[in-house]
Amino acid sequence: PRRAPALHRKLTALNKDLAGGRGLPEDEKYQNVPTVPVMRELAPDKRRKTHLQIRGNYLDLGSEVRPGVPAALVFNVASRKE
Questions:
Q1: Residue 74 to residue 36: CA distance in whole angstroms
Q2: Which of the chain's termini has less CB crowding within 10 Å, N or C?
Q3: Quick check: 51 and 64 in contact, CB under 8 A?
Q4: What pLDDT does 3 receive?
Q5: Are the C-beta atoms of residues 52 and 61 closer than 8 Å to each other?
Q6: Residue percentage of the chain with pLDDT more than 90
Q7: Cα-Cα-Cα-Cα dihedral of 31, 37, 41, 46, to 10°?
Q8: Among candidates 71, 74, 53, which has minimal Cα distance to 62?
Q9: What is the pLDDT of residues 51-62, one digit of tens each?
Q10: DSSP per residue over the chain, as a string?
Q11: pLDDT digits (tens, 9 = 90+) for 3-23
Q12: Which residues, including other chains, have CB under 8 Å from residue 54's CB and lie 6 or more apart?
């Protein structure tokens, strides 16, 4: 209870320090921040062919697959009865 105000002040100072980039120049603030690769769609002419793998074996390729929704999941609005 008695230490709470002192702890609060210390945490507030640390939060300000972290939020301010610890006094580093603007160009160095994010220099060591890890980055994550982001997936992007390839251009249609650069897309790779994708095949089923028979029993998970990447050397034993099955039929080619294309992007899209599986037929079992397609909902046909025209055939729906009102």
A1: 34
A2: C
A3: yes
A4: 64
A5: yes
A6: 17
A7: 90
A8: 53
A9: 999 998 989 999
A10: --SHHHHHHHHHHHHHHHHTGGG--GGGTTTT--------PPPGGGPPPEEEEGGG-TTSEEEEE-SS--GGG---STT---
A11: 688 888 888 877 777 766 555
A12: 60, 61, 62
- The encoded tokens of residue 52 equal 């089923």
Write out the two tokens for 45: 């002419």
Per this entry, what is the length of the chain? 82
Mean pLDDT rounded to a whole number for the chain = 77
CA dist., res. 61 & res. 24, Å (int): 53
According to DSSP, the residues that pair with 61 across neighbouring strands are 53
